[in-house]
Amino acid sequence: MKTLLFLAMCAFIVVRLLVHATRRPSGQLRSIDAIVPAYNEAPCLQRSLTDLLQNPYIARVICVNDGSTDSTAQVLDALQLQWPGRLLAVHQSNTGKGGALMHGLQHVTTAQVFLTDADTRIDPRSTGLGHLLAEIERGADAVGGVPSSCLQGAGFLPHVRASLKLPMIVIKRSFQQWLGGAPFIVSGSCGLFRTSVLRKVGFSDRTRVEDLDMSWSLVAQGYKVRQSIRCVVYPQECSTLVEEWRRWRRWIVGYAVCMRLHRRLLLTRFGLFSILPMILLALVGIAAGLQVGFGAATVHGPAGLVVAMVPLVWIGIVMALGVVSAVHHRRPWLVPAAAFSVLYVLLAYAVWLIHGLKGLFTGREPARDKPTRYPHVVE
Description:
seven-stranded mixed β-sheet; 2 domains
C-alpha cells in the first residue's frame, strides 16, 4: 500500500512538472535585493556571492557578517571593493541568523527580497529567481525554491544525500502545496518574499530553525505561501556523520518546538496535510521498522533483518529516483549511491527517538551546529 501511494505521488509530480513547464519566468530584471547572513563562511563566501551578483534578477546583495571569528570580514570587504554599489557589507556582533537577517532587511530598497545562505550556490545563468518572482506577481507573499546539494569539492556523504534530496523535496513540497495549501517550509537557502510582508512579520531567534518558524508564522497570519519547483539552488552538505547527526538533531528538535509554538495550526488544513504528516510518518516508520525487523531477525537471523529493513522494491524505487538526481547533477554514480540513502532514514528515526520526542514535550533545543565548510571549486 505504501509503495502504491508513493508511486501515485510520483505520477502526480510528473503531471505537475508538465504543467509548470509552460510557465515563463518574470521579465523584471535587477528587481530583487538579496540578504546573505554569514558566520564563519570564509571558505565558500566569495564564490557564493559572486554567483549571486552575476544573476540577472539581482539588483544588490546585502551580506551581513554576524560576528565571524575567521576571515569572513576580510573576504567580504575585499569583495565589496570589487562590486561597488552592488554588494553591501554589513558587520555586526553575533546575534544569530534571525537577527542578522533583520539587520540586513533594514538596507533593502526593492519590493521583493531574496534570502539565501552563504554556503549556497545559485547558477548565475539560471532563470530560477525569475520563476520565484513570477509567483509573487501572481499574488504570492512568499515563495520557496528547491534546495538541492552542492557537490563541487564534496565527499561521499554529500553524494549519498544528493542522490534523493532533489526529487524527494519536489515530491513532498508539491503535495504539501496541493493538499495543505502551502509547503511545509520556505527554506532559508532559497526564499523570495514581499519586502513589506517580511518587515511586518519579522524573523526571530526563538528557535534554531528560524526559516520554519517564519514559514508557519506567515501561514498563521493568512499570507499566501507558495512553492516553485523551477528554482533550484545548491547548499553545501555535511561531510561527516557527526555533523549530519547534529544538523538533523537541530532540524527535528526545531520542528518539534515549532509544533509547540504554532499548536493552533495543527488542526487546520495546513496542519493536517503539511505539518503533522512529517511526524506521523516518522513515528509509524519507527514502529513498523521495529516490529518487522524484530520479527524477521527472530525467524531468519541477521540476514532477515537486512532484507526486512531494506526491501528490494524500495531499493529499486530509490535508485530510480537517483536517476533523476544523476541526470540533474550529471553524475552517474548518484544512482548506486541512492542505495545508501537508507542511512538518512535510520538517522532521522534515531534522532526522533533520542531527541525529537524530548523536544516536543520540553520545548528545549540544542545549541546551533556549524558544519565545516569546504571551498567551492570550479569543475
